[in-house]
Design a protein that fits this description.
The chain is an alpha+beta fold. It is 41% helix and 15% strand.
Length: 87
Amino acid sequence: MKDKILKAVALKYERYKDKAPKVVAKGKGKIAEKILEIAKKENIPIQKDEELVELLAKLDINEEIPPELYEAVAKILVYIYQQSKKI
């Protein structure tokens, strides 16, 4: 069985500035590990969704997510908002 390669995508969304969340970092292997390391260090919430990562990884850096991914990303934003309320 082939081992899965770790992949990560970081999104940024500024509510009154951006029309939609943007991809600000993406990578696999060591780069994905570094993205996750920085997120943990900066207390940025992390959510695992392999299927969504695959779709987001196809986007370019600074590219807004397409409308067909709004619902999936909105669920992540709700999760992040709920987590930030617990802090």
